[in-house]
Amino acid sequence: MRKWMFVGPAALAAALLAVASVGHAEEAAKAHGTASISGKVTGVDGHPAAGIEVRLMAGHAGGKDKKTADAPADKPKRMEALATVKTDDQGAYKFDNLAAGTYVVQAGDHKTMAMGKEKVTLTDGQAATADIKLEAKGADTGGEKKKKN
């Protein structure tokens, strides 16, 4: 003889929530990925650059005049950072849990206006290295501007 067990609405809801949570966790893991990008930033002088802002951006390595695919034609947008970190005392940085794809890693020293960037294409599970050397952009010599006569 079989005995039938009645499952109440609360127990049924809890079971469904548990199943949904597992599916959601798997989707989140796929969206974030298992790849990483790390590297070291060196200054114009060749020494490790500590405290430098490093930005991770998706897509192309274009400049200010490039438009993103979703930007309206009359309003160009600059690439927005997906994540931002600062270098440690040795100039090292790392971005974890990345999905496969193409990224641009950009570093800049706001004091000296030196910048550098690297384009990286990742596959699932890859640990890529992107070392960045900062280069002076429009270097200011520190001298006073002379007046034209």
Describe the model.
- With 149 residues, the chain is of the alpha+beta class.
- The chain has a domain of 104 residues: Sandwich (Immunoglobulin-like).
- The protein has one helix and nine strands; from the N terminus they run αβββββββββ.
- A hairpin with a 4-residue loop joins β5 and β6.
- The radius of gyration is 24 Å and the shape is globular.
- The protein starts with 8 loop residues before the first helix and ends in a 13-residue tail after the last strand.
Q: What is the CATH homology-level superfamily of the domain at 33-136?
A: Carboxypeptidase-like, regulatory domain
Global shape: globular
- Looking at the overall shape, the CATH architecture of the domain at 33-136 is Sandwich
| Count, helices | 1
Q: What portion of the residues fall into strands of 2 or more residues?
A: 25-35%
